[in-house]
Write a structure and sequence with these properties.
Radius of gyration: 20 Å
Strand content: over 45%
Number of helices: 0
Distance between the termini: 33 Å
Number of strands: 12
Amino acid sequence: FSTSKFCLASKKTQMCSTLAWSDKAGLKAKGTLRKTSLSLLKPWLPEDIILSGSVSGRYDIKQNAGKPVGTINVTFPDSNFSFKNADGEVQILAYKNAELNATINNRTIIAKAKMKIVNRGQLSADATIKLSPKNGRHTINGKAQFDVPNINWAQRYIPRSRGLRGKLSGKISFTGLLTN
């Protein structure tokens, strides 16, 4: 079967896709997502995290010799997220230029993400996720780096400090199991 472009839309979002499937070629799907609210992720996030804004993107997935391959690219228009700190205070961080790009090759997903946190700095991360077909022990291996060119905004969080100056940057490597 195959479909020409079909869309699901509401006042706030739109998703359009083309789909095709055949015994010989398998599945092919290509589409776009526009201005979909990040609040839809609420059931999967810790209760102290609130995402504002929306996500837009595109995907192109197909089967190659029965194995999934393709790309997914999403962007997050300038917005903010909030969380409660250890003292129970709500912290709001504005972001811009956020994006996530992933390449799928059978059971390996390579993801790259980046964002600028307004008046704070920037963050980027790369990760390789390997999906296990046998035991469900999916692994992740990645690295992240951050750059905070001016730390004076952190002064209000450090008791008995005055005139805080400097910059902060770092690289983090991570590896482990992904569980549900």
